[in-house]
Fold this sequence. Notes:
mainly beta, elongated
Amino acid sequence: MAIISKLVYKGLKANLPASRSADSFYLCTNTRELYFGDELYTEPVRFYNGTANKPTAPAQGVLYIDEATGKGEAWDGTAWKPVITPVTVSASDNSVEIGGTASEPTVKVKLSTKDGNQLQLASEAGKEGLFVPAPDSADSYKVEEAAAAETGYLKTYVLNRYPNGDETRTAVECGKINIPKDYLVKSAEIKEVATADDPYTGAKVGDKYIDFVINVKSGTATDEHVYLPVNDLVDVYTAGNGIDISAATGIPPGDARGMTAKLSSGVAGDSANVNYKVSVKIDAANANGLGVGADGVKLDVAVANNSTGANGKAGAMSAADKTDHDAMVVALTVGTF
Length: 337
């Protein structure tokens, strides 16, 4: 059987009966609230605490707020619709400070306590906010040479700032300028290989090499070694048939009797430089007049023995001797001799 409810009160909420019939309506004209018995049917916002207490049969048109998270939703008859989404406030860097609570956060500017910071927060009424006070006088800047250069550099200069231009105060370092060493030879020394393939590939024990030390600045390195084998600086000639290579004495460079080259070991204490000559080698026992002089290779004219059969000299025939020789051969041949 249907129960017919009736409106039993219409008036101000202040006069709303404290004890109400469970099947009657009560209308508050000043707040526009409608009660059915003790139940308020026109409540615009309702609260619950935590997901476990979220209404399972919510009313439409009512905003439900979770006290645990601050999230607010409304039921549209088929699904919950978000109305209030909580926002988490966090600092993206150290320039601000976040305080308060999750539901009532506070944000304020963070002022650095580092020496030299001039930024201040004014609290004077009507003039609140950040400001930088004008200095008594302008700061001064100077580039000054450091007492010692940083490792690997020729010189180090420092850009210093003096607050208010007072150079009696401690300077504030603003930066450094490092002057690298030049990439020139720092030193060079002739050494001898003690271990094969050390310090360069292909090195043979006993080989001479020059160790160049070059100024560099790469990472933590301050110098670099470049090795130059002395053998690479010398063309080695080996005597072949008819060629002699030996130390020369008294033959100046460029002499036509041979090619000379001035060589030096370069070792400290070496007694002297040595001139070497390359010349034609003559078999003296079988030269038969063949020789070499300032003008080049020559063949002397033969000289006949004297009346005693001595002091003759082997060599080539002269034109006159050749003429006489040919005439003698003809005479012997035809019998006219």
